[in-house]
Amino acid sequence: MIQQIEWQVTPSCEGMTLKDFLRSKKVSASLRAAVKRNGGFLSEGRLILPYEKVTAGQRITMPLPEEPPVGVTPQNLPLRIVYESEQVMVLEKPAGMTIHPTMGFSEGTLANAFCGEMKRRGEVRPFRPMNRLDRETSGLVVCAMNTYAAAWLHKQTEKIYYAVVHGVPHPAKGDWNMPIRRCEDSIIKRCCAEDGKPSLTHYRVLYEEADGRCALVECRLETGRTHQIRVHASFFGYPLCGDDLYGAPSGAMQRVALHCGQVAFCEPVTEQAIVVKSPLPEDIRLLLLGFGAKESALIPDFGKALL
C-alpha cells in the first residue's frame, strides 16, 4: 500500500505556490524530487505543478516513495509503545538493550523488536530513531514512521534526561559547557577537551540527599555528543552512579543511572504539540530509596511522584 501525506491548506498559506507551501511544511528538495519521479503531487486527485498557487481549504496529497528494504531481522520481542500516530511512534527502551544491531549485539535490539512489530502488522517500515540511547540508558526513543516524518522531526525533538549523580551539583541550576572529543587511547570513551566539538548540557537539581551523597538531576541537551551527560557530569565532579567508564562504579546500581524521561515534538502533519513522559524505572527508584529519598518527593513539572 502506498503511504501518503495529506494537508489541507490553511488561510495563512493562501496564494502560496505549491513549492513554497511544501517548503513551509519542511518537505526537502530531495523528497520533492523523489515524489516528482514517482508521479508528482496531487490536489483533489489531479496533478498539481510546483508553481501553481494553492487556495485555502484545498487538499494537497504527497504520495511517499517506496520504502527501502528493512535490512534488520524482524524478531518477536517485547516492545513497549507509549505513543503512536500515523507519523510517529515513541518506544520505551529498557536498560541493557541496544538501539541498533552491532558486532556484539546482532539480535535482541530495539530495531529487531520494531521490525518484528511491523512484520506482525504486515507493514514494511525501516527503523528510524530520532534519538539514540546508550545500551545501559533506559527511556524514551522517538521513531519516525516515514521519510517525511524523519525530516520533520530531525533536530526538533526535545529530550529530558534524569540522572542520579554522586555529590550535589553547585549551583543547583546551570550549564555544563565544555567541548567533547574522543579520547586518543579509546574508540569508546569520550573526554572534555578544548579541541573537541562544542557541547552544552543544561542541568537542574531536582532532589538532593541531606548528607550530599547524591542528587537527582534533570538534564537537557543543546548538543548530542556521544556520552555527553556522562562526560560532562564526570568532568565537573559529579559522575553518574553506576558509571564504570567515567569513574563511579556503584554496587547498588548495575548500570548507568540515566533515564530519558520526557520527549517533546510537534506532529509532522497536524503540527500538534506532543509531550510524552516515562516514570523513573524500578532500579533508579530503588537506588534513590537506598540513598534515603522519600516516597513523597516530587519531580517539578513531571506531573507525578518521583518514586
UniProtKB/TrEMBL annotation:
Top-level division of the source organism's lineage: Bacteria
Active site: D134
Catalytic activity: a uridine in RNA = a pseudouridine in RNA
Keyword S-adenosyl-L-methionine attributed: no
Keyword presence, Isomerase: yes
Domain Pseudouridine synthase RsuA/RluA-like: 87-234
EC number: 5.4.99.-
Example GO BP: enzyme-directed rRNA pseudouridine synthesis
Family assignment from sequence similarity: Belongs to the pseudouridine synthase RluA family.
Protein name: Pseudouridine synthase
